[in-house]
Amino acid sequence: MSQPFPGKMRPLLPPDEAAATRREADLVLSAYNRALSDALDAALAAVTDEEELQDPEFDARLRNGAHNDLAEWFSAPLPGLGGRTPDDAFAGIASLGQAVVWFESAAANCDDDIPDLLKVRLGSHGTAATDALLTLALAPSWEVRSGRAERPPELLAASRAIETLGEWQAREALELLAAKFAGLGEPEEGIAESFRAYCTAVGPDAARVLAGCVEAAAGGDGEPIRGPVDYMVIAIADIGRKHPDERLFQCLRLAFRRMEHKAIGAICLGDYGDGRAVTTLKGFLDRFEGRIDRQTFYEVMNAIRRLGGVVSDIRNPFAGDFGRPH
User: Fold this and answer.
1) Which residues contact 180 (CB under 8 A, 6 or more apart)?
2) How far, in whole angstroms, is CA 240 from its chain's centroid?
3) How many CB atoms lie within 10 A of CB 82?
4) pTM score, two decimals?
5) CA 76, CA 15: separation in Å to the nearest integer?
6) pLDDT tens per residue across span 8-48
């Protein structure tokens, strides 16, 4: 893969063509977003059995059904397209430059996922499409922004680009994305969630890279680790519980000891599911008895219980013996 441009993406289309392409993309994708929203509302209104809402697969079924219901919308002429249909518009996305402009429009206009038709058109350009998405992903600052109610368009595009790279299993983007994320002071929440989704999609390869980042942070100046490490630890636990690995477990234990937000580390050890972590968690409660806040205490206790540990011998400073009703 060629090295992506590290700043703002260089225009792939002449200005006039880019503007015309963006106008058409905005027209189609804003209409698509409204049509999908209406289809989701109609599908949800048709549910009569409340127990169905509790089914873990319900949301996926709802979305699949709503997308299927859009077939008629795709094949019907759309006002403003001169008699053409949305299918025609998507089929007309020929160049990589056009596909990128449409992708940026989708990031701004679509509340749900990027339309599959668009991802197919973009993906048809192979490694050039991966390069383009990686450049979109790396272009803006990923640091948290104070005082801004709405996410700027370049950050919306970066988040969707990161997620799509994960869907495409683009491992070639892993080192660059991880290096940028690990270097943050405090990541913007949407970017952090997109990066976590990318890592989870890529799987064990991503977990190993993240473990290296966490280990490097934990071996620093002795200050508690936080910020991007919190999200990296969550991603390691997400991946590790499906793909257990001794290095990942040891990384989670190390991170828990060094993290500022111990509650997150405890949750992740519980999620990972290795009972050996009980010793680490109990040792923490013993060493810091009387100096642990309520949330952290209960998250650590809950993790111990989830891992099969005994908690009746632990004094609860907040509500008496943890094992008794209260």
Assistant:
1) 138, 142
2) 16
3) 8
4) 0.90
5) 30
6) 556 689 999 999 999 999 999 999 999 999 999 998 888 88
